[in-house]
Every structure is written in structure tokens, then in C-alpha cells.
Amino acid sequence: MTETIDIAGVEKRFGRTTALAGVTFGLRPGITGLLGPNGAGKTTLMRMLATVLAPDTGRVRILGLDPSVAAERLAIRRRLGYMPQEPGFHRNFTAFEFVDYVAILKEHVDRRARHAEARRVLELVALGDVSQRKVKALSSGMRRRLALAQALLGDPRVLVLDEPTAGLDPEQRLRFRELVSDLAHDRIVLLSTHQTEDVAALCRSVLVLNNGSTLFEGTPRELAELARGHVWLADDRAAGAHLSWRTGEGRHRHVGDAPAGADLASPTLEDGYLLLLGERPLKEAA
Amino acid sequence: MSWHVDDALLERYAAGTLDDAWAFSLEAHLLACEECRARTVPRADLARVETVWADVQELVDAPRRTPVERALILLGVRDHMARLLAATPSLTPPWFAAVALCLAFAVVAAHGSDRGVAGFLAVAPLLPLAGVAAAYGPWLDPTYEIGLAAPMRTFSLLLLRSSAVLLTTTVLTGVAALALPNVDWRAAAWLTPALGLVLVSVALTTWISAEMAFGGVASCWIGGVIVAREAGDIYVAFDAPVQVAFATVAAVAAIVLTWRLHTFQTEREA
Question: Which residue from B minimizes the CA distance to A93?
Fold first, then answer.
């Protein structure tokens, strides 16, 4: 089975709103970060890759299989772990019962084997100690990890994780990075997030969406390099910058077209991302 | 600790042939004696220890079965199917209690006047309709989105839950109907409309949202009953021609549902 995801010319509309406007990209094993502002089409794309949503037009191949064909869609789902942006829970279930329930939906029929698998994924996300606690009594961070645990059931070849680090505290985020980086060496992980530092820390490649179109596809380093020569520090706020903010040291960090002789700073992935989003409206207006 | 377990006893304990009284006594000693614990480890059959540990974990972790789940398993339903059914909002004791209360009111009202029986017949088909509406869908099933991406076929889950809801509601309504005054054919006149309304609603969900489908069909039913009442004879809504019409509608809806089965495999966006 081909260990790839290929998307070509995918479009999706909801009424008059275009969520995806001809998106094309390819994914290989490793972690790919999906960045974009709210409404960029990230969740639509994630749901499409999770086989929950069908495209209006375009070609989607997941592990070489076509999700529009029933038998192939089933084969994909058997190899897929999906963590939705807003996962729902039966709140009266315990953490263990919730994972056990999803395991049944994932065709884990044998009771003992299913329970062993539920224990395994709960241990993976460090929820083994609270597995008998009701979901409604878990913190939001724990619920996030619980949602991740169900996605890991059955050791899937493809993981589609929609904002998995939202609501996690710094320690939990580090644990998440540790876990996902361990998992990703031989499987495809697509990670949608607003946290550029997660992408910088984890991802082999990055995709930036805006208004349903692909703005950038490349490595995190390449995204950061887009901003080289466009990030500078100054004592005062410069009027011409796309974005600027006062740093903890009291100087102003600017992203945009640097003036001659500016004190250029080394760009980060976030700078590249901000520059990419910031330039687009200016170009459209020109 | 002034004494230690002798080798023969340890061998028998490790082999699992020691009787319970001796084993409990020895375990109490092992908890306190590091030296004897160390002597036990090499004698232990690791495979057997792992099996015992797995049994202990299973006992601790195994989800508690709800009353509904226990009842289903007693009826021969497999463990995983029972769990899927027990998570259905309209297969829980509070739901059954609400249905029973509705039926009790309808039966009491029926004893008040002849029109009361008509009230029972008007309400009865709405109960399975509400039960099926609550059985599956994005509005009441919190794991709907996760379930869509899971290999278990969405329609299989809907069918499983709807069948269970229809069965339980039919039994409850059937029992209530026996308490109606002057029981005759009319006590069962709600069955065909109920089946027709449920199948039409589910078929409509392949085009429109579940809220619109179930809400719209329920409204049409209530509207139809009111029209019949205003026309002078509410029982017209349950006469033989209407029964045949509902049976036909149910059959057509079932065919449409079969034709539209594929739409259950991804989100219906309407």
C-alpha cells in the first residue's frame, strides 16, 4: 500500500462560501503542519482527509485509495486515526469507557483485546491513572488527550489531528510533541494548529492555507526563510511594517519591508507565516 | 522477620498448586519479606503471572454495564452491540420513563371520552419517531463526527439503534394500548402510521437535516390529525385506506432509503 496522501485540485463549497478552491499537495510519512487563519479551510481539508466530507471536485488519494469508492473508503478508515477539532464525549462515560466505545466503532469486537488496546492508548497519552474517572470530571487538557487516545486506537497509518494542542498547558504540549514525534517516523501525520512553535518543533513539512487556497508548501525552514531580510528590530515602532510588537527587552520587532540600514533579525517560522499572510492583502490591493 | 518460607512451599505456590488458605498466608508473608519475594521471582511462571495480571486489569478496567446493557446481554445480544445500544439516548431508563408517562397520560385521557382514544392514536406514532430521531445523528450523538470516520458503517449503527428503539417503544405502546377503553382494532391503528413516519423521516435525512426531516414529518402528522378532527371524524386518519396508504409510503421510503444508502457514509451537508 502506498504510504502517501495526494490531493489534486480539490474544491469544496458550502452554499455561496468557497471553503477550498483548488487545493493541491502531497504528504509523505512524517508530520506535516497545516497553518492558516480562522476560516482558511483547514478544518474542511482535515475532515476531507478523515473521509468525513467529500470534495465537490478534485482528486483525493489516501494511501493510494479513493475515498469516494465505498470499499476503498472502508479500507482507509481501518488505517485512519482522526481527532476532530471539537471532539464530543458521552460525558457520563469514564475515560476508559469512552475509548472502549470508540474502539467498538473501529471494529475492535473481541472484548479482552479491545480493553487491552484501550489501556494501551490511554497509557500513551498519560491518562492511565485517571482511566476510571468520568469524562465530565476531566480537565479540558485531559479531554484533549482523551480525544487523541481514541485517534491512536488500532495503531493507524494516517493520523489527522485537528488542533490537538489547543488547551494544553506547556508540559502537556511537550508530552504531546514527544508522543507524536515518536509515532510519526513511519506514518503520515497531518496536524492542524494555530501554534507555529509546534510546527517549528515537530513538522517535516508545512502547508499554509488562506481563503481556501494553498499559500505555501515546503519545510518549516523554507517558511522561516521567506522572512529573511524582512524582520528587523528598532527602538521605535516603524510606520511601514506589516506587523510590529514590543518585545520583552523593550525594542520593537517588525515584519515587513525593512528600511535601508535596519537592524535585521534572524527570522522565525512565525515571521514567515505572518509575512505570508500580511503580504497577500497588499498584493491584491496593488 | 524471624522465619522464611521453605523451598517446597514456594515451589507449590509458584506452580499454583497451593491451597487458598496457605496461599493467602504466604502472600501476607511475602508482602513483608523482601528475601522471600526475591526467592519467589525465579520460580514464577511469567506467562501465568501475565495472564493473572491481565485478568486483574480486566476486572478493574472493564466498563460497568448499565441496566439496559445487562438486559440486552441477558437477551443474547453480544457485548459490543449491547454497549453501542446502551449509549443510545432513547434507550435509557429516563427515556423509557418519559415514554411511559406520555402513554399513561394518553390512556387516562382516553378513559375520559371517546375522543381520548383518538388522542392516544395521534400521540402513539410520535413516540417511536422521537425515539429514532434521538437515536443517532449530529444533534444528540456526541461521537457522531468520530463515528463518521470509523469503519463501522453509519447506516448499520442507525439501523441497529432504530430497530431497538422501535421494538422497545412498540412494546411499551402496545402494553399501554391494552389499557384503552373498549379495546378493538383501533388499539393497533397507530402501528402502520408509526412505521411510515419513521421510514419517511429517515429517508428524508439523506437530503435534509435530521431536525428538518423529523420535525417536518411530525408536524405533518399532527396537522393531518387536526384536519381529520376538524372534518368531523378523527378516526378517518386511522381507517383502512389510510393504513394502506401508510404501508405504501413505508415501502416506498424503504426503497428510497436503500437507493440513498451511500449518503450515510459521509456527512450529509444539508
Answer: B63
Looking at the domain assignment, is residue B91 inside a domain? yes
Closest to A22 measured CA to CA, from A66, A58, A65: A58
- Does the beta carbon of B96 lie under 8 angstroms from any beta carbon of chain A? no
The answer to whether residue A218 is domain-embedded is no
Q: What element of type H or E holds A120?
A: helix A111-124
Whether B124 and B253 share a structural domain: yes
pTM of the model: 0.83
Those of residues 88-117 in A touching chain B at CB distance below 8 A are: 88-91, 93-94, 96-97, 100-102, 104-109, 111-112, 114-116
CATH, residue A43: 3.40.50.300
The residue segments making up the domain with residue B251 are 67-265
Partner A contacted by B80 (CB < 8 A): yes
Q: For residue A59, what is the enclosing H or E element? A: strand A57-62
Instruction: Tell whether A178 and A201 lie within a shared domain.
Output: yes
Phi, psi of A41 (to 5 degrees): 110, 10
Write down which residue in B43, B61, B79 finishes a domain.
Answer: B61
**Dist. CA B252–CA B227, nearest whole Å:** 24
Parent domain of A257: 223-285
User: pLDDT 10s digit of each residue in chain B, 270 long?
Assistant: 568 889 999 999 888 888 999 999 999 999 999 999 999 888 888 888 888 888 888 888 888 888 888 988 998 989 999 998 888 888 888 889 999 999 998 888 888 776 667 788 888 889 999 988 888 777 778 888 999 899 988 778 888 888 888 889 989 988 888 888 876 777 788 889 999 999 999 888 888 877 888 999 999 988 888 887 777 776 776 778 888 998 999 999 999 988 887 777 666 543
